[in-house]
Amino acid sequence: MTIQRFEPNGKRLSHVLVNNGIAYVTGQVPTDRTQDIAGQTQQLLDRIDHLLSVAGTEKSKILFAQIWLKDIKRDFAIMNRVWEEWVPEDALPARATVEANLAAEEILIEIALTAAV
């Protein structure tokens, strides 16, 4: 069994790895944290498109997504609007969205997922 690791972040993690036909995308957070929830969500979805491509897959093959929001009451509807514009309607993954105290005050969203390769 070969595990492929892509885009390491120092000694902490690989942003995406592939094992047994499954791509695992680690929790992604926005780099431009001055943006609102719509902007931060779009940043992450663009980054996820890139990481899935590196792993040899794409968004229509997402199996499960985990989404953490800093303020779910304020941001859930807007995040969903951006998500719904991005995800293929005929390839909706399983998904969980919860509120969480994220790593930095200005991080409004984090997304991790798994996808078939």
From TrEMBL:
Gene3D superfamilies: RutC-like. InterPro entries: RutC-like_sf (IPR035959), YjgF/YER057c/UK114 (IPR006175), YoaB-like (IPR035709). Pfam families: Ribonuc_L-PSP. This is RidA family protein. It comes from Rhizobium vallis. The lineage of its organism: Bacteria, Pseudomonadati, Pseudomonadota, Alphaproteobacteria, Hyphomicrobiales.
